[in-house]
Amino acid sequence: MKRITIIDGHPDADPARYGHAICAAYASAARDAGHEVRLFSLANLEIPILKSREQWEDEEIPAALKPAQEAVKWAEHVVFYYPLWLGDMPALLKAFLEQAFRPGFALDEGDDGDGELLEGRSARIIVTMGMPAFFYRAFFASHSVRSFKRNILKFTGFEPVSTSLIGNVDGKEEHRKRWLKKISQLGASGQ
Asked: 69 to each of 28, 60, 99, 172, 173, how far by Cα in Å?
């Protein structure tokens, strides 16, 4: 059994959002299978943006974000969910990553450090979008997902990093239900 942290990066707290159902389905199936799960909805947190390198390096992380940051450290597997907005992750998730993945937590920038303080953890990125997922892969080369995977997660030590791209979320209800079933299977298996 695994320790799993889920970061729900949808900025809209409306419980009717499909992304919240995805995170809830994953969490429920994982718990039912015996995994320990911590779920954080960023929409319910006040996350200030960083405006300087000095803030990133020297200021304390806001107290409201510490439980989520600690849950990332606690986890063996971390699931990041976000809806594709303007071809990338929403600003709220980016602000969370900038706040939480600070030097000394995610990065060891010392002379003898290897840079990867979160190694030994796996991750899954789940992204929803209105366009077909194959179009996002083929035409846009999964830009935001590749960047998040390579430049943030792998850079800080996560390996392996898997992805689930869910397109056409505004389409048929059967399509959304099939994906909830797939996400539940991933949750049960801790992937």
From this structure: 21, 12, 9, 36, 34
